[in-house]
Amino acid sequence: ATFTIIVPLLLLLLLLSCLRSAFTIDPEPQFIEKYFPQVLDHFNYNSLGNGTFAQHFFVSLDQYWRKNYGPIFFYTGNEGDIWDFALNTGFLTELAAVQGALVIFAEHRFYGKSLPFGQESFNIPQIGLLTVEQALADYAVMVTELKKELGAQKCPVIVFGGSYGGMLSVYMRIRYPNIVAGALAASAPILSTAGMGDTRQFFWDVTADYENYNPACKDTVREAFQKLQTLAEQEDYTHIQSAFSLCKTPSSPKDIHQLNGFLRNAFTLLAMLDYPYSTTFITALPAFPVKVVCDTLLNGTDVLSALRDAVGIVYNATGEQTCYNLYSLYVECADPTGCGLGLNSLAWDYQACTEIEMCFESNNVTDMFPPMPFTQRMREDYCAKRWAVVPRPGWLRTQYWGDALLTASNIIFSNGDLDPWANGGIRKSLSPSLIAINIPEGAHHLDLRASNTADPSSVVKARQREAELIAQWVKTSREKMF
Amino acid sequence: ATFTIIVPLLLLLLLLSCLRSAFTIDPEPQFIEKYFPQVLDHFNYNSLGNGTFAQHFFVSLDQYWRKNYGPIFFYTGNEGDIWDFALNTGFLTELAAVQGALVIFAEHRFYGKSLPFGQESFNIPQIGLLTVEQALADYAVMVTELKKELGAQKCPVIVFGGSYGGMLSVYMRIRYPNIVAGALAASAPILSTAGMGDTRQFFWDVTADYENYNPACKDTVREAFQKLQTLAEQEDYTHIQSAFSLCKTPSSPKDIHQLNGFLRNAFTLLAMLDYPYSTTFITALPAFPVKVVCDTLLNGTDVLSALRDAVGIVYNATGEQTCYNLYSLYVECADPTGCGLGLNSLAWDYQACTEIEMCFESNNVTDMFPPMPFTQRMREDYCAKRWAVVPRPGWLRTQYWGDALLTASNIIFSNGDLDPWANGGIRKSLSPSLIAINIPEGAHHLDLRASNTADPSSVVKARQREAELIAQWVKTSREKMF
C-alpha cells in the first residue's frame, strides 16, 4: 500500500522538477562563491610571495552550461569587489543562457576579498605584488586549473571586462591566446592609460556631456567655479563654507583645491554613469543623471548653492548628509578621474602610481573645470611620497602594445559616446577581427549591463553584434584550437 | 709651396679612404661594447630591485647599417657571456652586411657581466630577479630605448637566438609583436622545456647520433658503462680510479653516480656540438667530434680506457689534465643535459629549478647510458634544498603557449637533425608564417654560425631561406607597421 502511494508521488515530483527546469529561466544568475589557491608571486620564486593566497571568484556551474561543451565566459575582475561587477554585468549571464556557457567572475588581487596579506596587503612591500602582470597571470593559471577540474579542457574561453577590466580582457587575449579565444572589452581606455593621446581629452569629454545636454549647463558650471575662485582669492572662507554646506570652514588654498577636486569628481562620475535608468553601481543614481544635474543647476537661484545641490546627487543620494566632509567624501590620488568613492581607493591609487598612467588635466579652456594640472612630475612626487615608487611612463605601452595591435585578433572594443573614457580607447576597427563598436547613447560599459526596457536601440544592436561575434569565435575555436 | 703639397696629399688620403670603404668588407664584426641602465625589477615596484643595473651589450653601429632605415638584428642573449655568442653567431653579421642592418647582441641578466648585484647576485633572495619574464622585459625596454637614442624608431626589429636564446626569440615575437617584426629561433626546444613530449627523447636522440655514425659505437659505450657498473657493484674502486684516471679514488655509490654523470655529459655535449669543422664554443672541439669520439672508442684496447680517452676530447682538449677531478669538471644540477662546463652554471641551475622544465631521463633501454632518472619529485627536492624554491610545472606552457602557437606569425623554427634538442622543438611548419626549417646535417644551431667551407649544403640552403624570409618580414613591416 505504501508502495502504491510512493511511486506516483515520486513520479509527480520528478515531472514537476522537469517542467520547472524546462519552462523557468531564472532572471537572476545563481552563482557559487569559491576561492582559488592562487600563486602569490608569479614572477619571483624567492620573494615574500613564496606561497599562495585565496582568490575570490564566482561560478555559475550548472545553470546554463552545456557541460564539457559550452564555452566559458570569464569576467576579468577589475578594481573592486567582484560581486559588484557580477551584479552590474547582466549581459554575461543573459548571453550564457543563450549560448550554453559557464560563467566565471574572478576577483582582481588586492580588491574585495582577495587580499593576499589580509589587512597588511596595503603595506610596503606587500603591495608590490599588485601589478597588471600578476593579475593576468592569476587569471591564466585560474582558467587553466579550473578547466582541468571541471573537465572543460575543450571549452573555448571568452573573456569579458569593463573599463580597467576591459583593458585586462584585451591583455588576456593578446598575452594568452593559447587560453583565451576572444575578448569583449567594454569601455577599455587602453590608449589614454598608456600615456597615449591628449592629456586634456578626458575632462574635455566630461564637459561635452553637459554641453551636449544644454550649453547653458556648461556655462553655469564654469560660472560657479569662477565665483568660487573669486571668493577663495578674497579668502571669504565663511561664505564658501555656507554656500557648499561644508562641515569645516576651509582655511587654505589646499582646502580650496580639495573642494575643486570634490566638485569636479561628481561631474566625472555622473558623466561616466549617465545610464537611461536608475542604477546602484558605485553609488545610487537616478536615470539620466547628467540631465538631472543640469536641471538642478539651471533651476537654482544662485550658482553656488545650485552647484552644491547638483553634486549632492552623487554625495548625498540618501539625503542623510547635513554637511560635506571634503576629505572623507573625496580622496585625491594618482587618478585624477577619481579614487575616492566606492572603489577600493588604496589599491587603485597604487596602480595609478605604477603602471596605469593617467596624467589628465583640466584647464578651464578645453573644459569647464578649474585648471588642475597633473603632470608626470606631480605624479612622480606624489607616488614617491605615498608609496615609495617611481612610475615608469611608457611601460604599459611597451608591455601591452599601445596601438600596435595589428597582430592581435578576436577583440571587440566597445565604447559609448557619452563616456569620457571612450576616446582613450579604440574607436575604429583595426582589422576584420579587431572590431570597434560605438554606442552613441551609451555611457561607461552600458553594453555589459543587463537588458533594460529603457535601453536605447544602439546598445541593443551592439549587444546583438557582440553576441554574434562571440558565437563565431567559439565556433572557429572549436574547429581549430585557436 | 706648402699648399701645393698639402692639397694633393689630402685628396690622395680621401681617395684611399673612399676606396677602402668601397672594396673592403671586414670579415670580423666591429662591435662597440656598451652598458644599458636596465630596470632591476619590471614586475614589482616595491622590491629590493627598486633601481637599475648595468646590462652589457654590443652594437655594430656604423658598420653595415643603412642609418635610420635598415633593420635592427637583435640577438636575445642566453645563458652565458654575450661575447661568446657574438663570436659564434657569424650568420647575423653576414646577414647584416647584405641587408644593411644594425646588429645588437644583448646579454641576459645574471650572466656574463650583467650581474645585477655583482658577486651577491647568486644569493637568495637576489637571484629571485632571474626569470624569463624579466629577461624579455629587459630586451623590450632596451630595444625601445635604443631605437629612440639612435633615431631608429621606424627600423623593423628582427630577433635571433639559439637554444634557450632561440626560445627567448620566439617569446619576444609572441609577447612583443609591437616591438619585434619576426624571429629566427635556432634549435629552440620550446616544447621539451615546457614539460611537453617524452622525457626519454633527449638521451634517446643523443644515442642516435652515435648509433648513426656506427652502431658498434653505441654498443661499445653501453658495454663500457656496463663494465663500470659491474666494477662498482664489486666495489673495485681502485680499478675504476685507474681506468678513468681519476684524481681521487671513488668510495661510494654517490661517486659512481657522479662519474656516470660526468661521462654522459661528454657524449651529450659532443652530440650537440657535432659541427663539420673545429670550434671553440663552450670548449675547444675537433671537426666532427662524434666521429672522433667513436673512432677513439672503437680503436681502444679495453673499453674502459677507451671511454676515458673518448671523454678526454671534452674534458682534456689541451692534454693538460693528468687526472680528472669529477666534482669540478662536472657539476650535477637541475639540468640533466649538463650544467657544468663553460656556461654559467649557477644561474642556469636556478632557471632549471624554476621555469625551465628539463626532467629528462636516461634508462639504458631507449638510450646507451646508465639509468639516471630525474623526476619532477627529484627536481623539487633538489631545488628546495639548493635554492629554496618550488618549481611550477606547467607555468612555461601557460605563459608561452606551448604548442598552441597558431595566433603567432613570422617565426622560423630551425633545427638540425643531429641535435638532441631538435625533437623538443617545432619540426613541422604550423602556418605560412610559422615555418620549420630542418637541417639534416646540422647540429645545435649550426645555421647561426658564420659560413664555412665545410658547411653541408643543407645549412647553406637553410640560411638562404632564412635570409629571404627575414627580408620579406622587414619589407612587410615597413609597409604596415606590423
TrEMBL record, chains A, B:
<keyword id="KW-0645">Protease</keyword>
<keyword id="KW-0964">Secreted</keyword>
<keyword id="KW-0458">Lysosome</keyword>
<keyword id="KW-0720">Serine protease</keyword>
<dbReference type="GO" id="GO:0005764">
    <property type="term" value="C:lysosome"/>
</dbReference>
<keyword id="KW-0378">Hydrolase</keyword>
<comment type="subunit">
    <text>Homodimer.</text>
</comment>
<dbReference type="GO" id="GO:0008239">
    <property type="term" value="F:dipeptidyl-peptidase activity"/>
</dbReference>
<dbReference type="GO" id="GO:0070008">
    <property type="term" value="F:serine-type exopeptidase activity"/>
</dbReference>
<dbReference type="GO" id="GO:0005576">
    <property type="term" value="C:extracellular region"/>
</dbReference>
<keyword id="KW-0732">Signal</keyword>
<comment type="similarity">
    <text>Belongs to the peptidase S28 family.</text>
</comment>
<comment type="function">
    <text>Plays an important role in the degradation of some oligopeptides.</text>
</comment>
<keyword id="KW-0968">Cytoplasmic vesicle</keyword>
<dbReference type="GO" id="GO:0006508">
    <property type="term" value="P:proteolysis"/>
</dbReference>
<keyword id="KW-0325">Glycoprotein</keyword>
<dbReference type="InterPro" id="IPR042269">
    <property type="entry name" value="Ser_carbopepase_S28_SKS"/>
</dbReference>
<dbReference type="InterPro" id="IPR008758">
    <property type="entry name" value="Peptidase_S28"/>
</dbReference>
<dbReference type="InterPro" id="IPR029058">
    <property type="entry name" value="AB_hydrolase_fold"/>
</dbReference>
<dbReference type="Pfam" id="PF05577">
    <property type="entry name" value="Peptidase_S28"/>
</dbReference>
<feature type="signal peptide">
    <location>
        <begin position="1"/>
        <end position="24"/>
    </location>
</feature>
<dbReference type="GO" id="GO:0031410">
    <property type="term" value="C:cytoplasmic vesicle"/>
</dbReference>
<protein>
    <recommendedName>
        <fullName>Dipeptidyl peptidase 2</fullName>
        <ecNumber>3.4.14.2</ecNumber>
    </recommendedName>
</protein>
<keyword id="KW-0865">Zymogen</keyword>
